[in-house]
Amino acid sequence: MVIRHLSDQPTFITKDGSHIREILNTSNAPVRNQSLADAKVDAGCSTERHYHKLSEEFYFILSGSGVMEVDGITKTIGQGDAVLIPVGSSHRITAMEDIHFLCCCAPPYTHDDTYFQELERK
């Protein structure tokens, strides 16, 4: 059994600009097929629009509100909302107020699977 407490995990900034604490990932547990992270975006800020060639993502909003963009479609999101981000979908989150969410990735998140240029999408 592996247990990791959120407060013991260091915060870092992902390539897209969100503040992340990896709760369970290949860096701190024998994870093979998924990862779980705690993420925050400050009010008025956005992550950089990006996509993943390998990872499917779920965002689960714990608090705050914002606008979620997936493949050019935008929706207002808030506490209790869950968002599916399919593999290869361009996405970003914009915080209307400080937004706090869980991010699940399968396979596990890596910086190397974060892409910014639309022309790379092949």
Overview of the molecule:
By secondary structure, the chain is an all-beta fold. It has a single domain, classed as Jelly Rolls. It has no helices and nine strands. It has a six-stranded antiparallel β-sheet with strand order 1-2-3-9-4-7, with no helix packed on it. It has a three-stranded antiparallel β-sheet with strand order 6-5-8, with no helix packed on it. A hairpin with a 2-residue loop joins strand 5 and strand 6.
What composes the largest sheet? 6 strands, antiparallel
In CATH terms, what is the fold-level topology? Jelly Rolls
In total, the number of strands is: 9
Mean pLDDT, nearest integer? 93
SSE succession? EEEEEEEEE
**Termini gap:** 39 Å
Identify the strand order in the major beta sheet.
Answer: 1-2-3-9-4-7
Q: What is the annotated CATH architecture?
A: Sandwich
Which superfamily, in CATH terms, is the homologous superfamily? Jelly Rolls
Q: In one word, what is the shape? A: globular
- Class, according to the CATH hierarchy? Mainly Beta
Structural domains: how many: 1
Oligomer: single chain
Radius of gyration: 14 Å
User: Number of helical runs?
Assistant: 0
Q: What keywords describe this structure?
A:
122 residues; three-stranded antiparallel β-sheet; Jelly Rolls; single chain; mainly beta
In short:
The protein is mainly beta and 122 residues long. The chain has no helices and nine strands. The chain has one domain: Jelly Rolls.
